Amino acid sequence: MTDKNRLRIAVQKSGRLNEGSMKLLKAIGVKLSIRDRLLIAHSTNLPIDLLQVRDDDIPGLVMDGVVDLGFIGENELEEKALERAAAGKASDYDVLTKLDFGDCRLSIAVPKEMSYAGPQDLAGCNVATTYPYLLERFFKQQGVNATALMLTGSVEVAPRAGLAEAICDLVSTGATLEANGLVEVQEIFQSKAVLIQRKGDMPVAKQALIDKLMPRIAGVMQAKESKYIMLHAPKDKLTEVTALLPGAENPTLLPLANCENTVAMHVVCTETLFWETMEKLKALGCSSILVMPIEKMMG
Ligand SMILES: Nc1ncnc2c1ncn2[C@@H]1O[C@H](COP(=O)(O)OP(=O)(O)OP(=O)(O)O)[C@@H](O)[C@H]1O
Ligand SMILES: O=P(O)(O)OC[C@H]1O[C@H](OP(=O)(O)OP(=O)(O)O)[C@H](O)[C@@H]1O
Ligand SMILES: [Mg+2]
């Protein structure tokens, strides 16, 4: 049984977005008792229920107000919004935040022996895809008369199987395309995971919980990008040292015992420190350079 007063969040049950979504929930302090085969999981420390579903179902669950929040890829969200618009259905939602996982692009790819100079070369072709609405929108924008052939899986084998001349599928490293003798020729949509909220009235307590969780999400993402740096720096090189450390405008400086010309510097850097920067710090006379991960941050 689910309780309407508990915040309902939809996540992908398994697949590319599952790990990122579950890790983020854990990092913001949501404890869950997951039983694999069940659709619903309850939080043991907060009034939150988790619905574990196929990602295709998440936009509709949010847009129809069945769940309060959903973790979803922008590609799937936009595809479902176009599909609903074509069926005369509204697709209201708010994007609460972009997330730092699920980065990919929706691209057209062709067999490597096929020549491709531009979208017009697809005129008269069948292009296999799981995202027919996004692809048809692209064809329309480009004025190309081609067919989006809907396949729910194994899109990359469609040209070899003689079903289509080209495909339009998600790409990240490009390994799947390469393994199937295909070449990416045209990006049509860039995507990452987002957290969305349903429109409409939200009970005060539920909205208060969302407002409490959002800064935690920001804090977790910021912490992942940031590093805590400790080093020993020559006193006469502090300006140059600080200039090498992104986000280090106000470093903490501490004296070192028995060492007049050197101080310890502690600083939170907003970016990962590259080896090249560490080498430059060393060249300036810095030593004992430590780069440490940060688990959580709050401004
Ligand atoms: N290679 C990738 N790298 C990063 N993100 C990806 C990649 N492939 C897909 N995604 C993102 O993850 C989402 C889910 O991808 P996945 O392949 O798990 O979906 P699926 O097969 O449709 O799963 P489901 O069974 O839930 O329908 C995609 O809609 C996209 O936003
Ligand atoms: O460019 P790449 O890094 O190879 O990633 C792209 C592949 O990743 C996704 O599939 P996934 O591996 O999630 O499996 P699926 O096809 O079963 O959804 C997507 O549908 C591509 O096939
Ligand atoms: Mg899916």
Commentary on this structure:
The chain folds into 3 domains: 7-101 and 193-223, Periplasmic binding protein-like II (D-Maltodextrin-Binding Protein, domain 2, 3-Layer(aba) Sandwich); 104-190, Periplasmic binding protein-like II (D-Maltodextrin-Binding Protein, domain 2), CATH 3.40.190; 226-293, Alpha-Beta Plaits (2-Layer Sandwich), CATH 3.30.70. The chain is 28% helix and 32% strand. The protein is built from 8 helices and 16 strands. It has helices at residues 18-27, 58-63, 74-86, 132-142, 175-179, 204-225, 238-244, 275-283, and strands at residues 7-12, 32-33, 40-43, 48-53, 69-73, 94-98, 104-111, 126-129, 147-150, 166-171, 182-191, 193-197, 227-234, 252-256, 259-269, 287-293. The strands form 3 sheets. It has a 7-stranded mixed β-sheet with strand order 2-3-4-1-5-12-6. The radius of gyration is 25 Å and the shape is flat. The model has no long low-confidence stretch (mean pLDDT 95). The protein binds adenosine-5'-triphosphate (ATP), 1-O-pyrophosphono-5-O-phosphono-alpha-D-ribofuranose and magnesium ion. Residues 54-56 line the site of magnesium ion. Pfam families: HisG, HisG_C.
How many strands in all? 16
Q: Could you tell me the mean pLDDT? A: 95
Unreliable runs, pLDDT <50, ≥5 residues? none
User: Largest sheet, described in full?
Assistant: 7 strands, mixed
Q: Radius of gyration in whole Å, from Cα?
A: 25 Å
Count, helices: 8
Q: What is the molecular shape?
A: flat
Strand content: 25-35%
Query: Based on helices, strands and strand pairing, what is the structural class?
Result: alpha+beta
Strand order of the largest sheet: 2-3-4-1-5-12-6
